[in-house]
Amino acid sequence: MEMPHNLTGENGFPFAQTLVFSSPPAPVENSLSFDALSPKDTCDTPLSNSTLYSSASSPSDSCTKPLCEAAPEEKAQYGEGIKYVSAEEEELACGWGAFTPGCLQFFNTPKGILFFLCAASFLQGMTVNGFINTVITSIERRFDLRSYQSGLIASSYDIAACICLTFVSYFGGNGHKPRWLGWGVLVMGLGSLLFALPHFTTGRYEVPLSEDVGVCASNQSLACTEAVSGLASYRFVFMLGQFLHGIGATPLYTLGVTYLDENVKTNYSPVYIAVFYTAAILGPAAGYLVGGMFLNIYTEIGREISITPENTLWVGAWWIGFLGAGVASLLISIPILGYPHRLPGSQRYIVMRVSEAHQLKDGSHKKASDPDFGKTVKDLPRSVLLLLKNPTFIFLCLAGATEATLIAGMSTFGPKFLESQFSLSASEAATFFGYLVVPAGGGGTFLGGFLVNKFKLRCSGIIKLCLLCTVSSLLAIFIFFIHCPNMPMAGVTQMYEGSALPGGRLNLSAACNAECGCPRDTYSPVCGSDGVMYYSPCHAGCKASRNLKSGKKVYGECSCVAESHRSGPGEAEAGKCTSSCAKRPLLLFFMFVVILFTFLSSIPALTATLRCVSDRQRSFALGIQWIVVRTLGGIPGPIAFGSMIDKSCLLWQDQCGEQGSCYVYQNSAMSRYTLIAGLVYKVLGTAFFIVACLLYKPPLAESAPGSSGTSENGNCDLQENKPSLQTEEEK
């Protein structure tokens, strides 16, 4: 209903203004706008856990009482001071059912819910985007998976999210958001526990090398019936665990974002959301670091093993992180379930909100302001249609999909890229990647929200900021023109005598190891004293071995290494040869820049999405956006990158004629494919942001007389005008 409402400031000047109130539980679409009202002229005195006292206790009641009412004792003491009154103390109390102890109300604030949502997003990021990407190589090795299969495991998360997003965002957006969030975090924890289950249901991991196996000797091949493990079917358990991760995290980044946005001031919303997403970015960084540490622990804890983490047959304790994250998620879900449907004091922020929703030519966007809109399934098609008719929203979704493809692909296979380029172990590569993601991803995410708040950017100005970040990362991605050369490997990258392989075909046999009977199913690379890597000690022609005090194993009497030296018997050390690539610092620096600017645009793009749609459609809009982002980006990203990386493989695992995981990649091909994918998606993202900015049509209220400094046509304005209705907190 609309009703004229007179407000009188301290100086006694009346201001006639139309207030638009919606019935339960709709927020106010349009806000107040005054031509010449000072901060002191508004009823904005903030009191803890209080709300504007309108006709009833909340927007869910009819409006028949003054919006702001001064208590007599307040008037006597402070003159025209205003006091907010809340009549929903019981309904808005924090607790579980009738159990609402007073000590819990300390956390019943925006900062309180932000803390628990940050903890949940940190655990989600650490598990899904940290641990899984860190242990992907170990899982491939342990369960004989190929890269496209591990990519399918990673994509199962997004597949589940796409299935649930429409239902969760539509009904959860009009329901009790904290309950949806709490149950989601609980399901996510169950998914983590399920993901660790294969470790306990499979037999012990047996390394097919004893202390002396692998040196030059005859009849070393394993029987095929023993070599083929059949563990690849466990990928379905991993996919189910990821499926539960996707179901549980669906409310977190749709309802969680809108719950924060609804319960804080508009200007502070980007900062709160940035903190929330920064925790989500720091989660993967912690996952890479902690997961890399766990990979240095042998998967069968307490068991003595002769190989070291540098050995390619080593499998670290990949499952520990999932157990810890699963238990922590179950604990975090409990306090989230206790929060009310909206926080005390949030009503005044809803009244003060300025709409920046994109204006459709036919005026159909006004349907979303209907108090009864969006409460039933019948309104679902109309809700979808309204969003599809919003070109700014559509192109923001497409831009997000292009960014998500690169983020999903690089986060899944980024450690593997570093492992191949710099000849690192899986744990070292994961730690390296964590060092990149912590400052670049986390810092970029927080900085993006800070810039939006600092410069008070409007919706179109935010889109221009996203465009600037995308162009910057596009220029930096050209760094993948360079790459680190492969370490020379006999029979794989070069012939045993040092010449190039004819036609690039493998030839692991040579005169120096012809009598050794070396098996292909035992891959244990060694680094010869000539600086060349060999497939195994056997393929290097080594006949003896000894352990050094440092724990390293050294092989002697290596006939193939001796032939390269042409002077006496050579030696070989277990593990890969250390890369001395001079381009490493340059490559790492520009990878840092790409990650920084990619994440720098994430919060501004999310804020622009929230602002270009009507208030009642925010949760549903985020749900639809995530469907588009995951369908076009998150799901195909890891699968496409996995298939691309498989194409750059030089040496495949051979299990009795069955192709397993990849042992050695061609660095130049891997960089080339990464460059092509990066350029394609960054150029598309740039184009989508340009179109979104050009097509954005702000509401006429943006150019109203009460908002100075707004451009005449309202398009592509960069500076957001400060709302004329302020609170004491803003002064």
UniProtKB/TrEMBL annotation:
Occurrences of domain Thyroglobulin type-1 (ranges): 513-581
PROSITE patterns: KAZAL_2, MFS, THYROGLOBULIN_1_2
UniProtKB keywords: Cell membrane, Disulfide bond, Ion transport, Membrane, Transmembrane, Transmembrane helix, Transport
Domain Kazal-like: 506-559
TM segment ranges: 113-132, 152-173, 180-200, 236-260, 272-298, 318-339, 392-412, 432-453, 465-483, 586-608, 620-641, 673-696
Biased composition range(s): Polar residues: 705-731
Membrane topology: Multi-pass membrane protein
Signal peptide: none
Stretches assigned to the Major facilitator superfamily (MFS) profile domain: 113-695
Annotated region described as Disordered, given as residue ranges: 703-731
Keyword Transmembrane helix in record: yes
CDD domains associated with the record: MFS_SLCO4A_OATP4A
Subcellular location: Cell membrane
Family: Belongs to the organo anion transporter (TC 2.A.60) family.
Name the UniProt record assigns to this protein: Solute carrier organic anion transporter family member
Gene this protein is translated from: SLCO4A1
